[in-house]
Amino acid sequence: MSAASYIGRVGGLAIALGVGTAIITGQGVAYADDTGTSVSRPSQSQTDSPRGDSATLDKRPLGKHRSTERTTLSDTVKGIADRVAEERQKRAEARADDADSVDESPLSRAGDRRQKRTETVAGQQDSAKTEDVSAPAADPEPAAAKPRVLSWLQSPRAVAGRQQAAEPQVQTTLWTPPDRAAQDAPARTVVAGLLTALDRAFSPASSGNGSAPVGGSLSDLLLLAGARRESTLAAIDDYSVGVVQGVISGCVVGTTCTTADGSTYTVIDRPSNGGKLTLDATTGAFRFLPYADENATNGPTGTETFSVLVAQNTKFTTVITGLPIVGSSLITPVVQRLQQAGVLSGLLGTAELQDISVDITGLRDGAPIAFTTFVTSWDNTKISTNFFPALAGSPDLGNPGYETIFNGPGLAQPGATDPADPFVSTFRSLGYNVVTWDPRGEFASGGVLQLDSPQYEGQDVSELISWVATQSGVQLDKAGDPTMGMVGVSYGGGIQFVTAASDDRVDAIAPGWAWNTLPDSLYPHSAFRTSYAGLLLLGLVETGARINPQIYGGILTGASLGILTPAQIQLLQTSGPGQTVRNIDIPTLIIQGTVDVLFPLHQSLINMGYMANNPNVKLIWYCGGHGTCLPGQGNGEADDVWFLTETAVWMQRYVKDLPIPADPYAFEWTDQNGDRWASVTRPTADGFYDDESKVPATVWNTGKTLPIIPFIGGSGPSPDVPLPYGLGDGSVATNAVTIPLTNPAGEANVVGAPHVVINYSGLGSSRHIYAQVVDKSTGLVVGNIVSPVPVTLNGRDQVAEIDLEDIAYTMTPDSDLELQIFTTATPFLNFTQFGFVHIDSVEVTLPTTSAGVNQGPNLVAV
């Protein structure tokens, strides 16, 4: 449950490339699903076909393709239809010969279906393109016999583009064999120039001076492509489809999804009725959630179809489609169409369409299956919703239905469609239905994202609850009120607070990594959390989210100037739980990460404090969250299992009402050793902290002057965390005031916020300096967390007194902790900060508690 699993799932470079590609192509932005490859995001009126990945199949020769003889563009356009028609006829005859030698079965008629498809739907708009590629109506050749790429090549638009010049048209070769390239170099065409440029880029042996390729990797590819080759793709086997644990799944080719021959798989036509398809681009394995009408109460029926392109690529296509930015967005669609048409097959490889039909009614056979639908919210916004039935079997007279768990996704993530998702699989196996959804403004849902606003996203979930109450197999507390709980982390944690505060049909919640107010999280002490705010924004842009424009403005203002306007602060203030948490009176399990650098531990204390009158509230601090649990900071693997186990037990106790003994502890946490501590007293209650800290106060008065220059000598990024997420973490600062902290006489639990008093003076434009606690024994910042400290640099003596971010650390007489004070930090990077500050003296007090009982190492079995 690392940050990378929930926040965007893309590196900074990948995000930037995705955003750039979307701008260059002008197409809908692709979005991410668990499996890897992407397809264009559908319009609001469609359901979402999750991105595909892929698979492979055995190499089988398929009849001869034409060679890559040198030809002119005009000759190609004029004669290509005849050659392709002839080739397709040969392939059809070859398939017929093969079929005569094999027994026919119900699942071996893919060739017939593809032929029928060619005769009926050739020239339709390709789902991967945004423009119409149908054949012109006036074309004398029947559309049924013409591949889609030919329709475009002979369309009036394409012809006009080739004949714009008034002077005689110059014949241009599509490709020049390597042995002719040198003598033809002065008259290189655009394509030849591109190949030469590619050679210079990829071949160490290239001259690099603009001359023709002289050897090396790309030259070898061209030589290979120049030779006559037999076709590389045989008539593909039929597909297989079935139901596994209530989810429709199968293989695009055959009954076993493999990577045997390097084929790639791409969705060409999305599911006909709007179901959600997840395709593995290297194995051809797929999962499918069929579409059910919102008003249906018994799930989906009927048939849905979709088409997948099965391609056998060459080394050449592998190189050009793998080019940064343009490879997947511009080159791949063209290559796929040429492969389908059989054009330049020796150079580009071949491909065939696999048409897949899913008989939903037949596959169900009376049993419930997972499906997707749209639920209409209060303002007519369509919310894309997924329903997974419980795995305990169909309800009977003695069991009218199953309890339901609502699992909200993180920001910039769609609702889970993978049955192996930890929350989905865990709760289905325990006998719950599971509901997931795309939040407002994201992926297949309509509307505009409002950051878990009670007035928008909160009301959306209330509508989902009402819809679930109408479905078969759902246990109800009363009419319109399903027996239900909510789980999820980050954005999916915040929505739990928001929903439970206003809808009393929710029976229990377990919010993880959530926040109380966004200003406290993104703008603590008026310091803008630049790195993570930028990551969140780029994740939303990369996935094509529709965002309230004020959110863009706030992030841009914060990143460039380090400040937010009052209106921007007000927007953040109304986005999320806030004081509405006071209204929650149901069992609530709050889980926060000790290494969470976006929503720090303090956010959980605010939420718990607001629920002082709710007797069924428990708080867990574990080594996780929006951050990375590094060695020496706890046992992250065990804590992840602890997180999921505690969440499941909480729902079993308070949603299923199983006779599980009440947990006596109100607060549990893990320390840097992986030991789990437990207290019956809440950390927000009087009496939790020791009257006098067991760790003596540290006083430092040596004095030191620090320059204020962005980046220079400050904290972050973490060298132990991959970029871009390491930008939000602290690291040991090299230009800092370093203060060794006094150790206790015995063991002491530091659980909370170190209190710091700083006497200083200085001049400059900076409004903050920064502080952190460093564990010298590991070389890590405790909790990876950096705290901003507001300062006034007007040349006068000043005093800054502040509580730093909360930490959890067990100190001993041998501990080696120090406080660092410095002037720049990548988590709060601000390019407007310059000047100097003189730190005159510092006093540090650490909060300790004796309320915890050591439960020993957290050794939850994985």
Summarize the structure.
This protein is 27% helix and 22% strand.
Radius of gyration: 31 Å
CATH architecture of the domain at 371-679: 3-Layer(aba) Sandwich
Spatial arrangement of strands, main beta sheet: 9-10-12-11-15-16-17-18-19-20-34
Structural class: alpha+beta
**What is the name of the CATH class of the domain at 371-679?**
Alpha Beta
Would you tell me the overall average pLDDT?
A: 79
- Write down the CATH topology of the domain at 371-679: Rossmann fold
How does this structure look, described?
With 862 residues, this protein is of the alpha+beta class. Among the domains are: 371-679, Rossmann fold (3-Layer(aba) Sandwich), CATH 3.40.50; 698-846, Galactose-binding domain-like (Jelly Rolls, Sandwich). Helix content is 27%, strand content 22%. The protein is built from 22 helices and 34 strands. An 11-stranded mixed β-sheet has the order 9-10-12-11-15-16-17-18-19-20-34, with helices on both faces. It has a 5-stranded mixed β-sheet with strand order 1-5-6-3-2, with no helix packed on it. Strands 21, 22, 25, 29 and 32 form a 5-stranded antiparallel β-sheet that branches. Strand 18 (617-622), helix 22 and strand 19 form a beta-alpha-beta unit. The longest helix has 28 residues, at 73-100. The radius of gyration is 31 Å and the shape is globular. The two termini are 13 Å apart.
